Amino acid sequence: MRRFGCLLLERGEEQTRYRRHPARPGDLPAQAHQWDEFFNLLTDRMLVGVDLHTDRFLYANAALQKMLGYSAQELQSLYVWDVLQEPYKSQIQASIALGLQDPNHVTATLIKAVRKDQQPIWLQAYATSVFYQGRMVRLANYIDITETMALKEQMDQEAATFYQVLDAIPTPVVIAREKFLYVNPATVTWCGYTPEEFTHMHLWDVLAVSDDLRHRMQINIQRRLAGESFTEEYPPIQIKGRTERPIWARIASRTLWHNHQWVILAVASDVTETVLQEHQLWQEKERYRTLSEVDSLTGIYNRRMFDRALQAILHEHALGRRRPVLIMFDLDNFKQLNDALGHHTGDRVLREVVRIIRSNLRSSDIFARYGGEEFTIIIPDTSLDAAYQLAERLRTATRQHDFHIGTAVTISLGLTALEREDTPETAIHRADAALYQAKRLGKDRVENG
């Protein structure tokens, strides 16, 4: 190693530099020798590489010689960048030129070098400018991180393989936190959004769910991102994509430690056809139910549904849960109206009467066409007086309505409070008898039975 005299470490403001010690006459050689030995002792026993250099190596400790496979003499014959690969050659060459001009130039650089035996080696280099023998040089130390870089490269390769596998899966796969971190090509094709658009989207932006389910899912995700691992079954969820057809998915997900954080890996199964078929089946069932329960002319319950409802109401009444009243009514002189104006007009009058009656009933009241022009109303929970007042309102509203047929349309009503011992037959018999009494006493009136 070249002798560089007695060097003292001086810490200036935001810099570290070496300067010659101002020696007293007669003691400089002794002090220089002491500092020389101290520097040798300090650096040659270090596990990290140390050098002094300008554009060439001036000094290299034993650790650096071992890292690069060169002797000290061989290194001193080389430019510093001779042991580097591009682009690090140009990078270090420029850094050295700057550092030899600027005493404040401190660098931390990852570089790839080549050993004497041509084996590549990765070094983490830290360098600063110091004064040595009246000129500026660079003092650097090096840490061999070849194994670390090899491990990183292996992990990068595994990660690349991982994403290559996900890219090849034909089923939509996403990795996300609150926002999407990765979507595979199948997801892009499925939803119609671009990968760039996904990077700006939250999970909620593509899910058409109720507020309640959204809240449950948000709590679920927060727990997962905190590291908790659990599963929860969700019903098929509608996806808000850019496709013209609706998209439905069943989503399976799990918590995954990925890139130093907890993420959610989700796999979606397209169940659109199944959901649409189930919806079509439900519509068919509803249609058949409507045909079996609803009167096709008036749109209210038919006789079959009335019988079932009356049976259920009587059962609850027997248990003391209800105070029901049954009303039966029909249109006065409807046969003559039909004969005079025709069935088409008669049907229109029936529908208008139903609309009038319906607008005066509660949603809990059960309104049914009993047969022909005869109708029934079950008031599930009321007093007989209140039911009588309702019947009067229905009668008045019908009489006052203009049916545009040149004459008024009236109805007669009979009502009865249901008893606990009643059967459907006895209840209907009393209501029908009250209706007959209203007819016998002049029509367009209400009678109790």
Structure description:
With 449 residues, the protein is α+β, with helices and mostly antiparallel strands. The protein is built from 14 helices and 18 strands. It folds into three domains: 7-144, 2-Layer Sandwich (Beta-Lactamase), CATH 3.30.450; 173-274, Beta-Lactamase (2-Layer Sandwich), CATH 3.30.450; 294-448, Alpha-Beta Plaits, CATH 3.30.70.270. The strands form four sheets. The protein has a six-stranded antiparallel sheet. A five-stranded antiparallel sheet has the order 4-3-7-6-5. Helix 11 (334-341) crosses helix 12. The longest helix is centred in the middle third of the chain and has 23 residues, at 146-168. The N and C termini lie far apart (126 Å). It comes from Sulfobacillus thermotolerans.
